[in-house]
């Protein structure tokens, strides 16, 4: 089973997570820029963070045979902080980087006017830079948040097939299904969607335009739940080809629209560095 996790926050995870993921079949990941849990107080803290997403973290992933790409954005939660909104002015610099395959996470947290403005501005950046967009839907009042997100996407003029509406559930999937946008599902231990629930969604709606991710971060989450979902699909009667489509070919198709997805030599052995858990740069 080959796995591409299209939404996972490896900055929050450990070296051991990379080792476990690689052993479970995770060969590629996309890390969206997100809220780190501690409020950031200036634009410089974002640029340092973005630099790590396009520099250090791909290097760290490569030590364990995992191909890494990122998305960058001003996340919805911090779009409400006036100290953070100038981040919108520095995003174009990062949206031109080779390893950046989408604008994200963008969307809504509390559905404020400030979030409206940041969401629309970043969809415009996605259009201008010819990139897909990854849309975060709010944890509270999700149905209304999804409806409002779809309205903003429609107003932006971006092609729906270049947008994934993430963190969906059984209540919201139908809202997105007929719009042409991609359907994103986060598999969590306690919240969002579990592997058995996702299997039922796939039975009802099929595997087309579906992205399944762990969204593993600094909270209670599990980077191996993509693997667990594939196993649950097989137990439910889905074929190996169905699993490969959901866990590999779909994310490749979606992020491949960026023109920057590099999966060349994905099965080539990675170098090892004896005597150290990670090769460290610098002199």
From TrEMBL:
Keyword Transport: no
GO terms, molecular function: hydrolase activity, acting on ester bonds; metal ion binding
Domain of life (superkingdom): Bacteria
InterPro entries for this protein: Metal_Hydrolase, TatD-like, UCP005295
The entry's keywords: Hydrolase, Metal-binding
Homology family: Belongs to the metallo-dependent hydrolases superfamily.
Name of the featured protein: TatD family hydrolase
Upper lineage: Bacteria, Bacillati, Actinomycetota, Actinomycetes, Micromonosporales
